[in-house]
Amino acid sequence: MDFAILSAVTFTPLVGAILILLIKMLTGAQVRADGSEDERVMYAGLLFSIATFLISIVMFLSFDQSASGYQLVEEMNWFQGIQYKMGVDGMSVLLILLTTLLTPIALIASIGSIKHRLTEYVVSFLVLETFMIGVFCALDLVVFYVFFEAGLIPMFIIIGVWGGVDRIYASFKFFLYTLLGSLFMLAAVVYMYLTAGTSDIALLETFSFDKGAQTWLWLAFFASFAVKLPMWPVHTWLPDAHVQAPTAGSVILAGILLKMGGYGFLRFSLPMFPDASVLFQPFVFTISVIAIVYASLVAWRQTDMKKLIAYSSVAHMGFVTLGIFSFTEIGVQGAVFQMLSHGLISGALFLIVGVVYDRMHTRDISAYGGLVHRMPVYATLFMLFTMANVGLPGTSGFVGEILTMVGAFQANTWAAAGAALGVIFSAVYMLTLYRRTVFGEITNPELENIQDVNIKELICLIPLAIGTILLGILPNLIFDITRESSLNALAQVAGG
């Protein structure tokens, strides 16, 4: 069972995608007169994504939280000494759980709102889920790169086909930014394989590259992970992608894909290039603080709800890089926690925007106001996730931010002070958004008959609300699992 579990959780969505395509080819496309497809294909895709989630639960239960190193390892020869090698530690096992939770939620949120090319839509999400899980399972550098890059394709299609008016521009911008950054990483992967004679991640963590090579390798990996996260100033693709993507696409983009950048820093940059990581610490601190402050100020001036939350994501990812490059256990633990917390909160906020967009077909903040009078349940859930995004104690958002700032304070007082400004600004833009959309009187006549959240929307939002509160009250549920992997990431860093 240990051998099969990671492959099972990784490739079950892909098997589902292939079966759905085969059934469509054999039975013919069931397209209605209005061009829409039979929604049973959505339920078929949902079935496979739920099966993947259940397998991931089995994987989690098989994971020994007290043990160090990689677990559930499976390995076989692929080609030219490169191994198909999969395994998980405390950090990756939780990111896999987050991925398998958000994917079925994204598909449930799409029921009723996506009608055209439904088969292709479902297949794109299932294929994307396989690639995302593969990134977090891969223990071979080449296998990691394949999964990491392949994930661009389904997300490019999701934005480009089912996105908004400017979807083509946004999808190509997303693809080109992320692809260009990853080309530098590819060159670094080749060099590392030729120099170390292996692409095994566990072996590369203990291989000592000379300091000069470390600098260039660190920069090559940084180019890829900084764009994926994204960090300032290579963040400009993210707001466009979020605004144009369908709601489910934004949930996955913010909830999972951005986390690959932070995961990459912890899996590669710190353990494999420790000297270069120390060298570039001031640089990372500087652009992280700029991202936190700048993105928060830009978010405050937005008129589009989705774009505001997109800039909020840029700011919150700045806390992640601050925590990682503090080179302290508390900072790294906080960064991992922040990634998981942000996955829940940002995914929920994009779903919150999707609820009113499906009813009003606009994301303009000025079109709303007084929603509490017609949508009290919606207003309550919106308030919870707003407070979590601000970092209110008792929510998961507070834990991640406070720990990353404590870790940063131990390394650089000024960086921590700059990040604290971001916390203040986040309260300004999120509370302003909430006040303008939820409070006050209804001035738009179209809001008079707007309906509160329905069962489908509650099914999507309630699990995220529970997770946000539970992790805020019992953060050790995460820390007990991630402690060993956090220490492993710091083991090679000088002075870590």
Write the layout of secondary structure elements.
Elements: H1 2-27, H2 40-61, E1 71-79, E2 82-88, H3 90-110, H4 118-137, H5 141-150, H6 152-162, H7 167-196, H8 201-204, H9 211-228, H10 237-244, H11 247-257, H12 259-272, H13 274-279, H14 281-300, H15 305-324, H16 329-360, H17 376-390, H18 396-411, H19 413-438, H20 455-473, H21 476-490
Helix pairs in contact: 1-2, 1-4, 2-3, 2-4, 3-4, 3-11, 3-16, 3-20, 4-5, 4-6, 5-7, 6-7, 7-9, 7-10, 9-12, 10-15, 11-16, 12-16, 12-21, 14-15, 14-19, 15-16, 15-18, 15-19, 16-17, 16-18, 16-20, 16-21, 17-19, 17-20, 18-19, 18-20
Outline the structure in words.
The chain is mainly α and 496 residues long. Helix content is 73%, strand content 3%. The protein has 21 helices and two strands. It has helices spanning 2-27, 40-61, 90-110, 118-137, 141-150, 152-162, 167-196, 201-204, 211-228, 237-244, 247-257, 259-272, 274-279, 281-300, 305-324, 329-360, 376-390, 396-411, 413-438, 455-473, 476-490, and strands at residues 71-79, 82-88. The chain has a two-stranded antiparallel ribbon with strand order 1-2. A hairpin with a 2-residue loop joins β1 and β2 (82-88). α14 packs antiparallel against α15 (305-324). The model has no long low-confidence stretch (mean pLDDT 90).
Number of helices: 21
With strands numbered from the N-terminus, the spatial order across the biggest sheet is: 1-2
Kindly report the average pLDDT value. 90
Shape: globular
Quaternary structure of the protein: single chain
Poorly predicted parts: none
Order of helices and strands: HHEEHHHHHHHHHHHHHHHHHHH
Query: How much of the residues is beta strand, in percent?
Result: under 5%
**What fraction, in percent, of the residue positions are helical?**
over 70%
Number of separate strands: 2
Reported for the largest beta sheet, the result is: 2 strands, antiparallel
Structural class: mainly alpha
Radius of gyration: 22 Å
**End-to-end separation:** 36 Å
